[in-house]
Amino acid sequence: MVRLKIYSLLSVALLISSGPLIAANIPAIAKEFPEVNSTHVGLLTTIPSLFIIIGVLIANHLELWIGKKKTILIGLGLVFVSGVFPVLKHDIFSLLFLSRCFFGLGIGLFNRLVIQMISDIFQDDPRKKATVIGLESAFEGLGGICLTILVGQLLKINWYTSFLIYTLALPIFIGFFFFVPDDKKKQSGKRKSEPNKTVSDNPDNIVSYRLVISYGILLFVIVTIFINYNIQVTPLLLEKQIGNATIGSNNLAFIGLGALIAGFLFGRIFDLLKNYMMPVALLLMGSSMFITAISESILLTTCCSMVIGFSFRCIMPFLLHTFTQQSEKIGNLGTTMVLVAYNIGATLAPYEGIVFSKLLHIHTVQSLFLASSFVIFLISITIVLGVVFTNKAKSNI
């Protein structure tokens, strides 16, 4: 019964990365609506990210009124209805666009709370919690891979039939409703027993808040670079004349495979590296990006793509696990900051090349990758120095 509860909770993560999966539909949708600007059609893949941020912020307040479980169920319901809507009504672009907005809102309502519920269940077992948070990341990657394959098959029928992938939200809703216990009474009782605290009550809270904000800024930069790698790896292969669009697509698949492996191994890696996990992951990511930039081998580039996916998926669960180890306020702020930074970074990632080209006078994808790898190296060194300084300060107490 415990396993059924955990897997019902983890199954929600299968939908978290499903927003951009309809990107392959964009050319067909643009052809269906020739009067609509192509930029607006392209927004169908990115607009959910903006509404995920709104959903995360709404969930922070909604969970206080109705509890985490009911908030997640509302989010799953929104994802199901708005996700499948284009299958039923696909001749009015404004309604299609609106359905994508509500879809993002639904994802945002449960995105953070899944992590928070895992933290609540395994509050007294940090090692098990790290393992399950890693599995959450793995389920997210697994959902992305499986649903991408399904979208490709459904596209053979029609562009709007590919939205049927979101019917997956219905069995997930049912499983979550029946097998995950209600948390409202437990949470409200817990809150009543805790005195009202402010940041000034504990000087350590000030440091924690600064740390959360600092990590949020760093994560924003890391996400923009990672997402831009996904966007630019195919143009890089074409620029260097060592591959084509199919090989670029294979690289994206291996990024997903690396992310999936990282999710399943996260608990063990965390036990081994502890606080050095993030800088080590960044060193791997920066090194792989640098090698990709100078490589003339398709095999080596593909391997580097897998390592980059692996490294990135070590960073996200590490931050989520680290923040959920703190007080409830810091935990909520930290997980919210991670998800907001991720979605803003993902939305603004295409502009990274424009910023770099203007600041550093970069005009090739290869130069962009080299510059990005050096930025990752700098972030890694900064975090290593921070960890060493923190460890020395603790040892002197």
Automatic annotation (TrEMBL):
InterPro entries (UniProt xref): MFS, MFS_dom, MFS_Efflux_Transporters, MFS_trans_sf
Pfam family, one: MFS_1
Keywords: Cell membrane, Membrane, Signal, Transmembrane, Transmembrane helix, Transport
Keyword Disulfide bond in record: no
Residues annotated as domain Major facilitator superfamily (MFS) profile: 1-397
Transmembrane segments: 39-59, 71-88, 94-111, 132-151, 157-180, 212-231, 251-269, 276-293, 299-320, 332-349, 369-389
Topology of this chain in the membrane: Multi-pass membrane protein
Signal peptide positions on this chain: 1-23
Subcellular compartments: Cell membrane
Highest taxon of the lineage: Bacteria
Primary site of residence: membrane
Annotated protein name in UniProt: MFS transporter
Organism annotation: Bacillus changyiensis
Classification of source organism: Bacteria, Bacillati, Bacillota, Bacilli, Bacillales
